[in-house]
Amino acid sequence: SERKARTRKAPAYLTFDDIGGQQRAKIELKEALDFLIKHEEIRKLGIRPLKGILLEGPPGTGKTLLAKAAAHYTNSVFIAASGSEFVEMYVGVGASRVRELFKEARSRAAKENKESAIVFIDEIDVIGGKRDGGQHREYDQTLNQLLTEMDGIHTTDSPRILLMAATNRKEMLDSALLRPGRFDRHIEVDLPDKKGRLHILNIHGKNKPLSEQVNLEMIAEETFQFSGAQLESVMNEAAIYAMREESPLIEQKHLSQAVDKVMIGERTDRESTK
Ligand code: ATP
């Protein structure tokens, strides 16, 4: 395959304030990240370094956003990849991509004069799934390489490396990844509650012309079990409805239509994947 290990740069920086809801996840994450920042103290006390943070929760809840905000918070370079990018037909290719990813993190940190780098792997379950007795040899090598990279992280390293990973199926992960010294911290990133939904709607409504009559609290009420990604869709669809009606402002009815549309869209998606 010609496909190269793609590593995506974060577009602009992103802070924890740009993420709606997720109060508990943010607090837990910041606490964990302080380990990366206070590395001198950690080293002096002989505490082993924090190597991995696992973000766990349903799709579209802001795990990638949290990882990006973590990079900003710790003044680290941010390198991201998705587990599916490491799946290849040829044995060894996935493993060498893992190696490249960490190499790139180190060289980018050096180039940008940063003391630390956060490597983010979305859909970690694709490569870190339970190993079943030599069935998936290629996956095994990829996972082994990831474990090797994690084991090679030391507090005295320059730059310091932190691996963050996201999954919505933690129970699928190989126990080797969950052992002490690997992904030590698990942070749950749940669907937002009503307050969180309102926060997210406000964030995505910030740059949109909302009519004064708009009541986002009502929309937050109506969007039980919506993810952050779906709420972002609601705001976007509402703007499209406004445009169709040549309305300069987004009205409450546009938002309600958008809620229905996103809800129905989800349902048909689910039907078609059955
Ligand atoms: P997946 O597991 O599908 O990769 P994820 O949890 O990583 O999902 P993100 O990629 O972080 O989700 O979120 C997708 C988009 O949804 C974001 O770019 C953002 O527009 C919106 N979004 C999701 N959660 C939030 C949130 N908590 N606050 C604001 N926007 C959010």
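^ adenosine-5'-triphosphate complex. The radius of gyration is 21 Å. The chain has eleven helices and five strands.
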